[in-house]
Amino acid sequence: MSTFTVRELVLGDYFGKVVCEPNWRWHRAHKPFHDFDLWYVWDGEGEVTLNGTERKVGPGDCFLFRPGDFTSAAHNPHKPLTVTYIHFAVQGNTGDQGSKIEDAIIPLPSHVHFDSAEAYESYLDRFIHVRMSGAYGSHEEAVMLLKLLLLLFERQAPANQALGDTARRSMHKVMTDVAAHIMQDPGHPFSIAQLAKLAHLSPRYFSIKFREIMGQSLESFIIDKRIERATYLLKLGMTVNEVAEALGYRSIYFFSRQYKKVTGKAPSAMRS
């Protein structure tokens, strides 16, 4: 369960994606932040000192600077940092130094690293595009995107990485990609050999890892997804015979038996 408190986020005026100038530096060691700043590194190398702790940074590093943080940063002018920055506040916190900003601090880590950041980067780009577009609903969409970015930021914290090491997370993605492939066309007569080839694994090892990660055998998963799709098609008004044919069943009788075995009901009962 997320510890991120969903409060009203107040979008700031400062946001963007920029290649830092060769002589760029950031020195706030004696002047604390007055708002929040989500700061993501796309490219380059540099270092950030946050409240006295120095950290080397590069692609995939992401920071959440808070009101009251003391920060300084610099980079290698030959490998300049490319960053996205999003300033925001939390409703009820104006950022004034005299206010009790501790009450408004979001309980998220200060730094995480994204090993694979393709999805996160797409949301960052979308946020910038939406803020600049001024299209209908752009403000509301930007707030939702920022909440999503903060949720993904929190999920990346080591304490929330339930899968453990990078290798396990990579295998989890492989299996969920295969599962999504099955769900896309549940009526296709998938074989273990075909799906194992898609995952670049031997059939035996693929079967073992699929059961371990997805919690059921490949055969059981395919049947479940086929029956889920059948239920949806039946509720759309297709006949039992049409659904059986659409999902590749060799006979309506076999489909009916399998459907009842999985759901406890005859398929005809879903056409109401």
Taken from the alpha-carbon principal axes, the silhouette is elongated
Major sheet size, sense and barrel closure? 5 strands, antiparallel
- SSE string, helices as H and strands as E: EEEEEEEEEHHHHHHHH
Radius of gyration: 25 Å
The end-to-end span amounts to 37 Å
Structural class, from helix and strand content? alpha+beta
For the secondary structure, the number of strands is: 9
Helix share bin: 40-55%
Strands in their spatial order, largest beta sheet = 1-8-3-6-9
**Count of helix runs:** 8
Explain what the structure shows:
By secondary structure, this protein is an alpha+beta fold. It contains eight helices and nine strands. It has a five-stranded antiparallel β-sheet with strand order 1-8-3-6-9, covered by helices on one side. The chain has a four-stranded antiparallel β-sheet with strand order 2-7-4-5, with no helix packed on it. A hairpin with a 2-residue loop joins β4 and β5 (53-57). α1 (118-133) packs antiparallel against α2 (138-155) and α4 crosses α5.
Characteristics of this structure?
272 residues, alpha+beta, five-stranded antiparallel β-sheet, four-stranded antiparallel β-sheet, 8 helices, 40% helix
In short:
With 272 residues, this protein is of the alpha+beta class. Helices cover 40% and strands 20% of the residues. Strand 4 (46-50) and strand 5 form a beta hairpin.
